Amino acid sequence: MRRTELGEAPDRRFVSRDWSAYFATALGGATRPRPDEPQDYIVPSPLMPHLMFEWVRARARERWPRRSIAVTPVPGSLGTPYDRTAPDGTRYVSFADWICPTHCIEPVICPAIGAPRSWEMGDAVRDLAARLRASGEPVFGAALFVCRHHVFGVGTFSVDAVLEGDAIVRKAGESGEPAAVLVATISSCHGALNLLRIGAGKPTSDIGRQTSAQSSDG
After folding, report:
1. How many domains does the chain have?
2. Which residue segment(s) compose the domain that 81 sits in?
């Protein structure tokens, strides 16, 4: 829906800004809600790049500016008929080898084939992470941002899930050893995956020092 159709209202605010810059501000100060507070959600655009991975990668670079933070190809098979790696290293996968219906909410009965949906991308990504660990890869996660049907055909994932993904990256870096984190933004049928590699080094977080300094200044 376009902004002109929706109009202005006290319960919403329109922000026109670069995606990465917006999430750096919005998520940088995000906290988990109290039990009596509602969740915050992100509605991803089908055409956006893997922005949640870019955010956790930027956070890792803030935490450990003197350590190697690299993106490497995601190895292994997920068993999906569609599997392509983009020039930026993002691996796009899908269990659909057909054109999905517009606004599909991925129900139990797949509307494209008229039969039960026997796949779940989250399981495939978690299985891949387990296989990589079994092969000796120091893989943490998977850090999953799972888009589900929320209301009126709108898919979302929670800000809590993004913060949990950031916590997995932090745990990987705090080991002080070379580590990798499998990061994926997925639905039941489709996904975008990246592998974040963190070089060995001191686990001290620059983000933590910045937060402490701001608290002292206050």
Report:
1. 1
2. 39-98+106-203
